[in-house]
Amino acid sequence: MHQSWQPFLKEEFKQPYFADLSAFLRQAYRNGVVYPPKNQVFSAFATDLNAVKVVILGQDPYHGPRQAHGLAFSVTPAVAIPPSLRNIFQEIHTDTGRPIPTTGYLGRWAEQGVLLLNNVLTVEAGRAGSHRGRGWEIFTQHVITYLGEKRQHVVYLLWGRDARAKKELIDGERNLILEAAHPSPLSAYHGFFGCHPFSQCNDYLIKTGQTPIAW
User: Fold this and answer.
1) Contact predicate 178/200, CB 8 Å
2) Separation of alpha carbons 62 and 84, rounded Å
């Protein structure tokens, strides 16, 4: 974790809801297979808080072996690119003309100030959504609220119902909110493809004196 997040995380870890969440996670990791590995759960917070200029909100981590590593939508380099991420790459290509990557690892986005945050940070192997309702949603709400207090002129890419539910936490006058359908194969053709979020994001960053993202 980057030191810029330490004051927030230190206080958050003291909250009663997080104590309950931690107890649940200790048991879950002890009794079964949970993704991502424990030492990668907070990988998104390696992005410097003071450099965050884009937030992409995911749902919960991939639940297959060697996929999730703590960054929303990202997978480890040696793993096949999942369908949702393939659709994201396709939209980037259509929107900006950039070539489609050969790896699904999105660390290069995080290094440019893109906070890749899942709504729920852990999941049981093979069971999508299995750690919902355990407290992660509260944590994510607090992250968005805290970020709003510290940063402005941030682009929030809200894809899908879970992400769009966080809209009310964001000041739309001080930031740019771009909503769309989730990029999964079930919904990508119903509002994700053709929404041009990546060019809109970069146009806004340039307009506000920031460096655009090399998607």
Assistant:
1) yes
2) 10
Query: Treating both helix axes as pointing N-terminal to C-terminal, what angle do 197-207 and 83-96 enclose, rounded to 10 degrees?
Result: 60
Owner of token pair 């999105």: 106
60 is catalytic: yes
Long-range contacts from 100-108, C-beta under 8 angstroms, 24+ separation: 103/77, 104/73, 104/74, 104/75, 104/77, 104/79, 104/80, 105/74, 105/75, 105/76, 105/77, 106/71, 106/73, 106/74, 107/71, 107/74, 108/214
Question: CA-CA distance, 12 to 19, in Å (whole number)?
Answer: 10
Q: What is the 3-state secondary structure (H, E, C) of 89-153?
A: HHHHHHHHCCCCCCCCCCHHHHHCCEEEEECCCCEECCECCCCCCCCHHHHHHHHHHHHHHHCCC
Q: Going residue by residue through the chain, which has 215 residues, state the pLDDT in tens, using 9 for 90 and above.
A: 899 999 999 999 999 999 999 999 999 999 999 999 999 999 999 999 999 999 999 999 999 999 999 999 999 998 999 999 999 999 999 999 999 999 999 999 999 999 999 999 999 999 999 999 999 999 999 999 999 999 999 999 999 998 999 999 999 999 999 999 999 998 999 999 999 999 999 999 999 999 999 99
Q: Are strands 123-124 and 34-35 parallel, antiparallel or unpaired?
A: antiparallel
Catalytic residue among 48, 60, 95, 171: 60
In sequence order, the 6+-apart residues with CB closer than 8 A to the CB of 174 are 148, 152, 153
